[in-house]
Every structure is written in structure tokens, then in C-alpha cells.
Description:
This protein is α/β, with parallel strands linked by helices. It has helices at residues 15-26, 41-49, 61-64, 81-88, 96-102, 118-131, 146-152, 164-167, 195-203, 222-228, 279-294, 299-308, 336-344, 367-373, 385-391, 404-414, 436-448; strands spanning 7-11, 30-35, 53-56, 69-72, 93-95, 108-113, 136-140, 157-161, 177-180, 214-218, 236-241, 249-253, 256-260, 267-270, 317-322, 325-329, 350-354, 374-380, 397-401, 420-423. It folds into 3 domains: 7-91, 3-Layer(aba) Sandwich (Rossmann fold); 98-308, UDP-N-acetylmuramoyl-L-alanine:D-glutamate ligase (3-Layer(aba) Sandwich), CATH 3.40.1190; 317-448, Mur ligase, C-terminal domain (Protein-Tyrosine Phosphatase, Chain A, Alpha-Beta Complex), CATH 3.90.190. It is 34% helix and 22% strand. It has a 9-stranded mixed β-sheet. A 6-stranded mixed β-sheet has the order 15-16-20-17-18-19. α16 crosses α17. The model has no long low-confidence stretch (mean pLDDT 90). Residues 112-291 form the Mur ligase central domain.
Amino acid sequence: MDKHKKHIVILGAGESGAGAALLAxxxxxxxxxxxxxxxxxxxxxxxxxNNIRYEQGGxxxxxxxxxxxxxxxxxxxxxxxxMKKIREAxxxxxxxxxxxxxxxxxxxxxxxxxxxxxxxxxxLTYDIFKKAGLNAACVGNIGNSFARQVALAPADYYIVEIxxxxxxxxxxxxxxxxVLLNITPDHLDRYxxxxxQYAAAKLRIVENQGxxxxxxxxxxxxxxxxxxxxLPVQSKILPFTTMEPLKEGGFxxxxxxxxxxxxxxxxxxxxxxxxxxxxxxxxxxxxAGIAARTMDIRNxxxxxxxxxxxxxxxxxxxxxxVRGIDFxxxxxxxxxxxVWFALESMHQPVVLIxxxxxxxxxxxxxxxxxxxxVKAIVCLGKDNxxxxxxxxxxxxxxxxxESMHDAVHASFFLSQKGDVVLLSPACSSFDLFKNYEDRGxxxxxxxxxx
Length: 450
């Protein structure tokens, strides 16, 4: 350890931690990476190739507590014993996005958060910037970590998908454009099951903004309205809504999407021409379009993207039609509100595959849509009793499975021509799968094998 260098400890060595380690090493910090579990082989190789010291399978307290500063990966909860020791020692803790921000000064940052829709909105915003010919990078919870991108391939514009966990540990992070799509219950197990704590984390996205920055948010979202009214916002506010025309922002009128921002004339697009359909995607499209307009991107580039963008893998992704039954992969739906949005956009009878590790879901939120649209629920997980307790009375058939093979075959058996089988779990995947991507890919493999 070099006594003259600032000693930084990276807790966790996934994409976020490995990216932070690369950037910290590049900026001549003395870096040590500590992961309580096993580190993926690709990240081990990367750390070793860059001569970054690391440990895996546990934390050596004597080494961690020597840190001048700790970068905490978003998956590590505050209740972890090593975090309690770090807090007791008074060592400053930051998130990977805070570290990346330090070395992205002078660049434009468009930060997007929300309980639902942020991945789609981030990808759509990035698509607009690329169509406009700008040097942009899509980072954060989607693609490379923000820190990795800053270290290895700096861009002029960073479109950053940010979770509440990442916002928990910011200090100076200040995006030129902050987008808040919605605030609905999610990850409440990490916030003492208190909605106000979770909402406060989401709203930190605007806390360092000034009058020259922009805050884009959904005017229709009751969660945002409830918690925003007590927050002094310094930035220029650009709301979006489906309810009424606005003087500035985004709105739906006469079945047309309208964007009214800055000097350029309004952008007007028929909602039927939008590439992303469904009410939730009207919000995502407006948010992305407004963000682009704040950066003076011309209407023609925004229109081209809004009308041609292809949706993401694992987010309401059409997989195949087998004997007239459509299969939809929405594995990224890891909370109950995502499932609500998915069901709301379905127009055929649904066989719903759901389940996994429950994060404190209130399943009553989807009870009305289940009663209206779902003919059968196929539970996929090791413990499905909460789903049974909440929804069994609203659906004719509910069955249990413990593998993707069984879930897909049960769904196929329960369906008929004209139905849709929707994988929209509402839960984390870690009881049976590596992550939501693994769950979605296994779903697609089983569907193609039918």
C-alpha cells in the first residue's frame, strides 16, 4: 500500500465494482477490492491484468477498515456486518456513480430513475442521441457501469440508468438532466419497509441540481406528487402527462404525443405511430423526447427514434407464437407495478408465469387486472404461498412449478389458440436463476423447444 496515495476500497466486484476499480486505478488511487462472495472469472481476470489487489469469499476487516474512502456496490445492504463496521469507523462511503461523476466533469449527464420503465426510457433516450449523431454512452444499470465507461471509453453525453441503491450514496452527483418516471413500492426490504425512505432515495437525483439544470417527471404519478411537494427543487421543471395540455413539457392530446420544450416548434406524433405501444410507454416516450429536447436535439431525430425504436430483451419481448399462442418475455419485471403495466398492455387472455423471491409485494395491486385478463397463474419459485393467498380467489387456475421447463410446459397446456403466455414474475430471480437475464433466456429456450 502506497502511503502517499488515497487508499480506496471497492466493496463488491460485479460490473459496478469492477468498473469502479478500473477507474480508481486509472486515477492513481491505491485500490483494494473486497467481495464477500465469489468473483466472476471475467472480473478476476480483469483485476489481475490491471494489477488490482482483491479478495473474494469474505472481507478482511483489517484491510477494509484502512480505507480513506469506500465505494459500495449497490447490491450490498447497510445491514451487512462489514458496512456497520465501516460506518462505525466513520469512513466516507460513496457509490460507483459518485466516483464516475468526479471524472466526468464537463460532460453532459442525463440520469434516469423510477420504479418502472427506466431501462426502456434509458435505451430509447440513447437511441435518440445516437440517431442525432452525438457521442453518447448508455451506462449504469444497463450496459457498462458508469465508471467503466468513463475509464475506458469517455463520451460527451452519458445516458445513465440509476437505481435508488446507487442514489443512496451520492454526495456531489449532479446531472444536467434528471428524469423521474414514477415512485411505486419496490425494494422496500432495503428501506425498513418504509415507502418514504425509498421515495427519498429516488428524489436524491435532484438534490444537487441548480437553476440551469432540468428535472423531468411524470405529473400523473401519485407517488411523485406525494413526496415532491415537500422538496425544494432548484432546477427547471418539465413535467409530462396524459391528462391535459401543458405550456411546457410533454402531453397527449387528440391521440397525439406532443413535446413542447425550448425554442423549436412542438413535436407532434400520432400515438399509433409510436414504436413502443401501451400507456406506460407513452410516459417513457415523452420522458425520452423531453430529455433529448433539453439538449437541443432536433425534432426529426426524436421522431425517427420514437417511431422506429425496438424494445429491449426481457422487457415485454415477443418470443414466438406456438400453435397460435403468443409467448412474451417480461423477465425484467421484478416488482408488482411492472406486472401491472404488463397486464394493462395485454389484449388477449393471459396465462401468467410469476414468482421468485418476494421483495415485499402487495399483490392486491394487480388483483383487478388478474380477474379481468388472467385465465391461469403458473407460479415459478420455491415459495409461492403469498401469490396463492392474494390471487387464488381471482383466477380459475393456479399451479406451482420449480423449473422453467415445467413452468413453460404447464403454461402451454393451460393455453389455447389466441392466448398469450406472459412471463412477468414480480419477484427477484435468485432462488432458481443467476439473474433476471438468465431467467428470461431460459424462458426463451424452453419456448423455442416446444
